[in-house]
Amino acid sequence: MTSTTALADPATDPFEIARAAAAVIAERTGAAQHDIALVLGSGWGQTADRIGETRTTIDNADVPGFAAAAVAGHSSAMRSIAIGDTGSRALVFGTRTHFYEGKGVRAVVHGVRTAAAAGCHTIVLTNGCGGLNPSWSAGTPVLIRDQLNLTAHSPVEGANFIDVTDLYTPRLREIAHEVDPSLDEGVYAQFRGPQYETPAEVKMAGVLGADLVGMSTALEAIAARQAGLDILGVSLVTNLAAGISDQPLSHQEVIDAGQAAAERCGTLLAEVVRRIAQEKSA
């Protein structure tokens, strides 16, 4: 991966920091490269256990640019996993840096850039979110077909014009539908957070075309496209968004819904990842 911005100081160049992180991962795992990266959001933690054999677990604090999880229910480690018998390796991040943590956009997309520097051709971005469709009960997985970046920020710096027309790779969504034809698709809107969206904000997002609302993923997807990665996005509806339901919102509700759906979602995504690896290596 090469930087598209001319930053003079290697100590602050986000692409150099990503390459340094990838070098540590390669050394610790003994794998010259990884093939598919996964960012596991709320409710997706069991996916890593179902993908295949974990070869190495690395504490985030041991890798440049990474930090411990700031959200309850997330893991502060990354894993190198053999994807079944495909001969491919998955780099699985048990947590992400959220924009609301105040560390800046570079920190938010550092995992994505590290995945690209580690050799990955594909990244799977998952999250727990609020749903605008009343038929999506808590525990429903939904493929992301497009997004609204409502953070007023971008990970792309300088006059680098990135085409995001087909941001979420159509072929990867096709593979997911082959695994589970019942999967719905929707548009994901990222708000800054950490406060949950108001009913008026949810209504606004719906008018703009959103089906899902949350506090992650959109900035990561833009960075992934800049890095040349294929992107699959999957949301787990953990609750109906504010104003869609008359129930109050809580993070415990998100955790509970994720735990209840963990087995189904983990099995689904593990099979999707296996098929992606098979197709890419064919």
TrEMBL record:
> What's in the keyword line of the UniProt record?
Glycosyltransferase, Transferase
Q: Does the keyword Lipid biosynthesis apply?
A: no
Q: Which GO terms describe its molecular function?
A: purine-nucleoside phosphorylase activity
Q: Which reaction is recorded as catalysed by this protein?
A: a purine 2'-deoxy-D-ribonucleoside + phosphate = a purine nucleobase + 2-deoxy-alpha-D-ribose 1-phosphate
- Give residue ranges for domain Nucleoside phosphorylase: 36-274
Q: Which organism is it from?
A: Flexivirga oryzae
Its assembly, as annotated, is: Homotrimer.
- Enzyme nomenclature, EC number: 2.4.2.1
* Pathway of action: Purine metabolism; purine nucleoside salvage
Q: Which GO biological-process labels does this protein carry? A: nucleoside metabolic process
SUPFAM superfamilies to which the protein is assigned, alphabetical: Purine and uridine phosphorylases
Q: What protein is this chain from?
A: Purine nucleoside phosphorylase
Q: Where does phosphate bind?
A: S42, H74, R96, T97, H98, G128, S216
The record's annotation in Pfam families points to: PNP_UDP_1
Q: What class of enzyme is it?
A: transferase
Where do the annotations place a purine D-ribonucleoside binding?
E197, N239
Tell whether NAD is among the UniProt keywords: no
Question: What function is annotated for this protein?
Answer: The purine nucleoside phosphorylases catalyze the phosphorolytic breakdown of the N-glycosidic bond in the beta-(deoxy)ribonucleoside molecules, with the formation of the corresponding free purine bases and pentose-1-phosphate. Cleaves guanosine, inosine, 2'-deoxyguanosine and 2'-deoxyinosine.
Please give the GO cellular component terms listed in this UniProt entry.
Answer: cytoplasm
UniProt family annotation: Belongs to the PNP/MTAP phosphorylase family.
| Taxonomic lineage from the root | Bacteria, Bacillati, Actinomycetota, Actinomycetes, Micrococcales
